[in-house]
Amino acid sequence: DINRWWAANAAQGRVSLLMGYSFGKAQRLLSGLDPAxxxxxxxxxxEPLNAAYRAAGVSLPETQPLAAWTSAAKARAQGxxxxxxxxxxxxxxxxxxxxxxxxxxxxxxxxMQLRGARRRAGHDRGFVIxxxxxxxxxxxxxxxxxxxxxxxxxxxxxxxxxxLQEQGLxxxx
Length: 173
Prior knowledge:
Elements: H1 2-11, E1 15-19, H2 25-31, E2 40-42, H3 47-55, E3 64-65, H4 72-77, E4 84-87, H5 94-100, E5 103-108, H6 117-121, E6 125-127, H7 135-145, E7 149-151, H8 157-166, E8 170-172
Parallel strand pairs: 1-4, 1-5, 2-3, 2-4, 5-6, 7-8
């Protein structure tokens, strides 16, 4: 769905601004993008994390720094007018939108499943892609790390801590 949205924008010479959190979500989104559509540009908060993923052996499409995009006119002259820009949601500012020219904005988040979330945030579209793992997935990830000490920071913290302690692990909130 994201590639179809991007291709439709590219066909009209419109920039596609895809927002997702910099660590994890951006790389998950990037891994599913079709770089044959047009160039992919990334915000300065995303690119260092992409580099870390690539250094760890994760295959990600080629990207260019958004900082190279100085104006919509120059970008179109460089063939970037149909680009996809991947950035964190807090990077969406009036200044960025002016710099990009005509753009379609979307947010990729589990929050987009909630009725009215896209409209309240003012995005053209929303893609439901959650960062959250289910109970078996969380336990499989913990087991795969071999960690003996786990600090739980989000969700049903007390329930998870108790369960992990029952499994013989050192767990805390």
